[in-house]
Amino acid sequence: MVSSIFRHRTILVLAAMLCSLVSVARPSARTSVAVVTDSLTYSHASEAIEEYLSSMRLDGKRGILLIDRWGVPDSLRAALMDLYKNESLEGAVLVGDIPVPMIRDAQHLSSAFKMSQQRDWKSSSVPSDRFYDDFGLVFRFLKRDVEKPELFYYSLSEESPQRIRSSIYTSRIKPSDEAHKYELIDAFLRKAVRAKKESAGIDHVLFFAGHGYNSESMVSRMAEYKALHEQFPVIEGRDGRLDFINHDFDESVKDRLLNGSPYVSSPDGWLSLARNYFRVKVRSSRNQDKLKADFINRYGIPAQWLDEASDPKFIVQDSLYDPEDVDAHSIASRFIIFDACFNGAFINDDYIVSHYLFSDKNSTLAALAHSVNSLQDVWCDEMAGLFGEGVCAGNIYRNIWNLETHLFGDPTFHYSSISALDAAAGGEGYSERHWRKILSAKEAHPDVKALAIRKLVRSGSISPEELIRIQTEAASGIVRLAAFDGNAEIAPDCFDKAILLALDDDYELLQRLGAKFATYNQSPALAEKAARLFLDPLTSKRVLFHIKSLLVTIDGEKAKDLVRSTPYWKGEEGKESLYKYIDSNSASIKTDIDNLTSETTDLKSARLFIRAQRNQCRADALEPIAEYYTRCSDHDIKLLIAETLGWYRYSFLASRAESLCRSLLEKESDPRLREELTKSIRRISE
After folding, report:
1. I need a surface site. Which of 194, 410, 497, 667 has the fewest CB within 10 A?
2. Residue 5 has pLDDT above 70, yes or no
């Protein structure tokens, strides 16, 4: 987990809107922001909501009040689409009890979520407001949750684009304290209005690296430290400040405030932590009785400890275990990035972000967090420097987020004064020529250049070859990474060239993301570089993590030949150990592929191997998996294969994967399988 926290003297506030179902005067402005709320919240906090709406004028935006009288996501989405078409809507703030879309059949739009959808629907769906802000996506309604009627389940249609391009931004203002939620919303909105009148710049940036994050690579921490200086030039001066906390700097910080479990030094404390651990594990198990028996046999613990898992008293106690630590402190940060799993799980009765936004001790006005689990190796600080260029949070992150990513609090929050770049980041104002002018300007901020690259990529106005040239020539690591990221979005046939450049880059994050995508791409052109990096003692720990995965996708004998011809600091003994590792993996893969081609295929093993390719995308597994589809009679496995083929988007065999999908689709009559094959074709080709 890494939380990047931006703290400044300033405050800033939430953007709002003014009327729709309830009419309000509309001041002249180029764009509007909708404040969406339910009737009860409006009746309890109407004065604060109206003040918040009026404060929009300070940012040159128009506030529109939209009271959700339907309680159904489809109706609310239609209303927002109408405002987008007719009122230049740039964003929406969802205040109070707004229905939650739970998205299924769209795991490829998340960064890491790959849970089996055969599990409980609440756990295996992604709470996502992309339903409200990406009007290009097409969904199919499935059902409403019985236990939690505010949850509505939708499937991403095969007729939909298979990538996110948000039309507007969204943010949630939703306290987790049900008993006092209206007072908390009222207080937060008033805080946001006060902040809007006190605009100031950034003077302090803090980032924290959590336990296990990025393999605890200090090279990764150093690279982020350097990049933050480039993104926030103010911290170079006497009045600026950049702080870094690693999880192990202090026991209290590591174990209590930022990393989960409190620091304890007594037997009673150790036992309490152990009992909490076992309760949590039992609750999340699909077979609780089996797990309980296993724990008792393995650790000799009392059955009473495990029975506590279903005790309402302990369920409440465990759910509040960590937030109490947050509530005890005053948080000065105005904006926080929670680059961690589930911190923004707003469908739960309690979630971490809420404690930062709604405490009367805190100055926090907005935060970015995830509603489910998230990937470690992402560009978590991407375009954060745009805060220093007068862009609000919503217009920054609408260009970046995944299915699970959400803004909380005031999405119109900004530092200093809003600039013309704010509207341009949101999609208005700048032509292709203007973005190219920014890209060629030596003095332009690197994150503004990164935004220019994103805009040119998404408008189809820049070629893969031009992006490779930028990646080769740019002095800024951030700009080089933006160019690489652009090619990752396009996924062209020459993507392996961009990966090779990334693997040789001295910016650790770019090298690490190059290594991550190399494990998906697996072009033979990457093999020699993979062996060299793996055997190089200077390769950072997290890059090594990915390169090791790439190494075992190379043909076993070829991989061993590459190792033999490359010096290794661990000597021949180290090489022998590596040969055994390569042989072991080669044998395992051969067993799995032989099982697929066998006349007596073990279905359980086949299912596990096919599902693993959603992460591994092994080139040598592509043809056997597709061939097995034609012989398999198990509908669920065929559905899994149809979906898995779409994950080959970044592979050097992507075109072949698309061709296989088209061939299977031509012969397929089953409607559900045709839907998934169609979706995979779009995922690869878009």
Report:
1. 667
2. no
